[in-house]
Design goal:
It is built from no helices and 30 strands. With 363 residues, it is mainly beta. The strands form eight sheets. The chain has a four-stranded antiparallel beta sheet, with no helix packed on it.
């Protein structure tokens, strides 16, 4: 039997912990410069991709892994992030031009976007959020101007602005949990029932600069990735703190020196929408699937030919998309016209992302 992309079905899956990327499919007509972010719609098989070429592109993905560009809009400077509205009709780009711009796909427009947010410095990331007791979905933006702002898309001014300790590097939302990671390793946690203040602020459990933060599917906590090849699993409430832990990943033995290790940045973390397992991807050009509850690596994959800058699962968890692109970890001089920029689609089959079976024993 065969499944998505012609891959073997679950019954034919191997138990090998080394994954196969030989059948991964490249996205048609990818961005022309570094890829900063990618996000699947939660309502359809559409993928938004943002790039340093100042564009946000929207692709439609079919069951054979084929892709077709459906829409595109531009910023005035590189786009650093993108996101979808919950109903799958709107795509927002977060730009170095200090603006967030939105395309409403339900209008039939496929080329232009309206500005919906502004900051005093580049906007690093954006997410749609549901604020309890508010009818309309809002947009939250995080910027290098050290603020997050909430936007009612029917108004030109922010509904609220909250000052962070430092520049915003990453943020994510799940249910009523908003997590904001900044420079200097601060992590601000917001309960969206009271969005105008921080529920609590912690220092990252990792000792080096934060690259990414991603919420658990149930909104009880989040995963943190750093530049020093580490990932941390962190719960919000103190009563769950005994389940917090961190682990090394995206490292390799150096060619010189017996005890030397090459350490790579963890650039992206994505949670599987059904199983709650998660992926990490990094500057070493590899991605891995993990079971946080069993503290176990499920699968590791070969090097893909360049740094992985962004990842996401589609709504069913049957496709894992990853971008291969320069991540600026070695400065501007290393970025050349020959640097690869591509998005790959990996069919998730068999037990690749399924959590380990729970075994009996003492509690």
């Amino acid at each position: 039997m065969s499944g998505l992309f012609g891959q073997p079905s679950a019954a034919a899956s191997s138990t090998n912990t080394t994954g196969d990327i030989s059948k991964d499919v490249a996205l048609t007509a990818p961005p022309e410069d570094g890829i900063s972010d990618l996000k699947f719609s939660s309502q359809s098989e559409h993928l938004a991709v943002s790039s340093w070429d100042k564009k946000v592109r929207i692709y439609e993905i079919n069951s054979s892994g084929g892709s077709e560009g459906k829409a595109l809009f531009e910023h005035e400077q590189p786009v650093l992030g993108c996101c979808w509205s919950k109903d799958g009709t709107k795509v927002v780009g977060a730009g170095a031009d200090k603006a967030a711009r939105m395309m409403d796909l339900s209008s039939g427009n496929t080329t232009t976007a309206q500005q919906v947010a502004a900051h005093d410095a580049p906007i690093r990331c954006a997410r749609f959020v549901d604020i309890p007791n508010q009818q309309a979905q809002m947009l939250v933006t995080g910027s290098w101007d050290k603020t997050i702002k909430y936007w009612d898309l029917r108004q030109s001014q922010p509904v609220a602005s909250v000052t962070c300790q430092e520049r915003v590097y990453s943020l994510d939302v799940m249910n009523t949990l908003l997590v904001v990671a900044t420079a200097d390793r601060y992590i601000d946690i917001v309960n969206l029932s009271d969005p105008g203040k921080f529920y609590k602020t912690i220092q990252s459990p990792l000792k080096w600069q934060t690259r990414v933060v991603t919420c658990f599917n149930d909104g009880s906590g989040f995963a943190v990735g750093s530049v020093e090849g580490r990932c941390a699993i962190q719960y919000v409430e103190e009563k769950d703190s005994s389940a917090n832990f961190s682990f090394k990943c995206h490292r390799s033995a150096a060619q010189s020196g017996v005890n030397n290790t090459n350490v790579y940045s963890v650039n992206a973390i994505s949670f599987h929408p059904q199983h709650g397992t998660f992926s990490t991807a990094g500057s070493d050009g590899t991605f891995h699937f993990w079971d946080k509850d069993a503290k176990h690596r499920l699968k590791g994959y070969p090097e893909v030919g360049g740094s992985i800058t962004a990842t996401d699962f589609n709504r069913t968890g049957s496709i894992f998309a990853y971008s291969v692109s320069y991540d600026w970890s070695k400065g501007y001089a290393v970025n050349t016209p020959q640097t690869v920029n591509k998005v790959m689609l990996h069919a998730v089959t068999g037990d690749e992302c399924k959590p380990r079976p729970k075994t009996g024993g003492r509690k």
